[in-house]
Design goal:
The chain is mainly α and 186 residues long. The chain is built from eight helices and no strands. It folds into two domains: 95 residues, Rna Polymerase Sigma Factor, Chain: A, CATH 1.10.1740; 57 residues, Orthogonal Bundle (Arc Repressor Mutant, subunit A).
């Protein structure tokens, strides 16, 4: 691209020197060029994907502008970034699309979005309290302080007189016992 506008080279050199006005003008000049190039390269991409590619390219340019050789043309440098970032963005988009389901395709009463097979089962607070009361005193105290009252291990250790390691063990064993009693298994 030897017929490149010499203004781009001057703007890039000024941007590399830290001149913010020149950097802003460089980005404004490059923006329509990048949009056209992205649209030409990825014709099947949606407008949102094209805009994402352009924005990713501008971010990458910001991080890599110090690597540009001022004696060389700017456009091949920038278009190379566009090519690589665009491929990354569209590859990521394609991977995500393969794992996504359109919500419009699901009926409102569908259970496809349920995150837990026992989502409809509600644990009664009284049942939970009774199960906690049946724990050993150390486990009950550890669960109440760390899980119900939200104390840190250090705070619970100071208040109970138990070591942090003993609190961890008691909490773990207490949670296992609660799961077993409440039908959650391991």
């Amino acid at each position: 691209m030897s017929d490149e506008d010499p203004v781009l080279r001057k703007l890039m050199a000024a941007a590399q020197r830290g001149e913010s006005a020149s950097y802003a003008r460089l980005l404004e000049t490059l923006l329509p060029i990048l949009r056209r190039a992205a649209h030409g390269r990825w014709r099947a991409a949606s407008p949102a994907d094209i805009e994402d590619v352009v924005q990713e390219t501008l971010l990458a340019l910001h991080n890599a502008r110090h690597l540009h050789d001022p004696a060389r043309p700017v456009l091949p440098f920038v278009l190379g970034i566009l090519k690589l970032r665009g491929a990354d963005v569209l590859r990521r988009r394609h991977r995500l699309a393969a794992r996504e389901s359109a919500l419009d395709d699901l009926p409102e009463t569908s259970t496809a979005l349920a995150t837990n097979s026992e989502q409809e089962e509600v644990l009664d607070a009284g049942t939970l309290r009774a199960s906690i009361e049946r724990l050993s005193p150390g486990q009950r105290q550890a669960i109440e302080m760390t899980k119900l009252q939200g104390m840190s291990l250090e705070e619970a250790s100071l208040r109970s007189g138990m070591s942090i390691a003993a609190l961890k063990v008691a909490t773990h064993r207490g949670l296992l016992a609660l799961r077993k009693r409440l039908g959650g298994g391991q």
